[in-house]
TrEMBL record:
InterPro entries: YicC-like_C (IPR013551), YicC-like_N (IPR013527), YicC/YloC-like (IPR005229)
Protein name: Protein YicC
Pfam family, one: YicC-like_N
Required co-factors: a divalent metal cation
Length: 313
């Protein structure tokens, strides 16, 4: 095993710090007369998109505070925040408009007497009519009052969501490390095979010329064959592509080890694109069945990386 590969394996065994973009968190809280329930879902997105819905009208200031809290935990993805508030009514929250109630009652009583019917004996049927009961609570004032508790329960749901995203990120990082090492090993097979390709081409060229020219092949100079083989070697040289591919693999593992301040998903996506480009060039240059097999396998591995990277924050 080469020193470069040993270093690569050491880096690959470092603790992964990736975070998945998908997850779910839920939290509940009972505070005074209000029950809080929060559900937060996160799915893939190239950018950060936050949607908030609540069974109460939220003022813009409250939505801004909730968004700012979500941004402290999540940097990329589509985040859906569902808020459910259940407030127990208090005696002073409602008022019965007695004038409107009496107006309804008198009209119904008069209509019943005119029709020869018995007027209603209670007021219960009238309480559901428009204008009878008025709500005195200002919804915006109510939300402002409970906002600290609401932010507390949202933070608890975000903690659950984050824990789930980190667990999934650890699992993905382990899979991606193994995939990167597989790509590196395949590049070593290609590197070992590459010198044989030129020699095989020289031998095939010599045999083909001998078969075509017959006895006249004796006039062929060895240096002519070597010159043609040298031209082929120059066209088929993939040493630069191997070096660049390994560099991309090493950078990929470095990002897994230390994602940095910015979301690492975009950098990892770029590196997978560059890996695929170098592998494609290898396949186009190398005129060899064994190298082609390795190229197909490497493309499969990079495609696995690309699918996983699409879920990395």
């Amino acid at each position: 095993m080469t020193a470069a590969k040993r270093a690569l394996i050491r880096n690959a065994e470092a603790s992964p710090l990736l975070c998945s973009m998908t997850g779910f968190g839920e939290a509940r809280l009972q505070k005074d007369e209000t029950s809080f329930r929060v559900e937060i879902r996160a799915v893939n997105n190239r950018f950060l998109k936050i949607s908030i819905r609540c069974n109460e009208d939220l003022p813009a200031a409250a939505e801004n505070e909730i968004e700012n809290l979500v941004r402290k935990y999540i940097r990329r993805g589509t985040v859906q925040v569902a808020l459910f508030l259940d407030r127990q009514p208090r005696p002073g929250d409602y008022r019965i408009n007695t004038q409107v109630l009496l107006g309804y009652y008198r009209q119904v009583e008069a209509a019943a007497l005119d029709a020869g019917l018995t007027p209603p004996s209670g007021i219960e049927p009238f309480l559901v009519l428009p204008g009878i009961v008025s709500e005195l609570v200002d919804p915006s004032a109510y939300v402002a009052e409970i906002l600290p508790s609401l932010l507390t329960v949202i933070a608890q749901a975000l903690e659950q969501l984050q824990a789930m995203r980190i667990r999934e990120g650890h699992a993905m990082a382990a899979d991606m490390r193994a995939t990167c090492l597989r790509i590196y090993s395949l590049s070593e097979e290609v590197e070992q095979r590459a010198p044989m390709v030129v020699e095989n081409y020289r031998q095939r060229l010599q045999e083909r010329m001998t078969r075509l020219l017959g006895e006249a092949a004796e006039v062929l100079k060895p240096e002519d064959i070597l010159k043609e083989a040298g031209l082929f070697a120059e066209r088929a040289d993939i040493s630069e592509e191997i070096v660049r591919l390994r560099s991309h693999v090493q950078q990929f593992l470095s990002v897994l080890e230390s994602p940095g301040e910015e979301p690492p998903g975009r950098r990892l996506e770029f590196l997978t694109q560059e890996m695929f480009r170098e592998i494609n060039t290898m396949g186009a240059k190398a005129n060899d069945a064994e190298i082609s097999r390795c190229v197909v396998d490497m493309k499969t591995q990079v495609e696995r990386l690309r699918e996983m990277v699409q879920n990395v924050e």
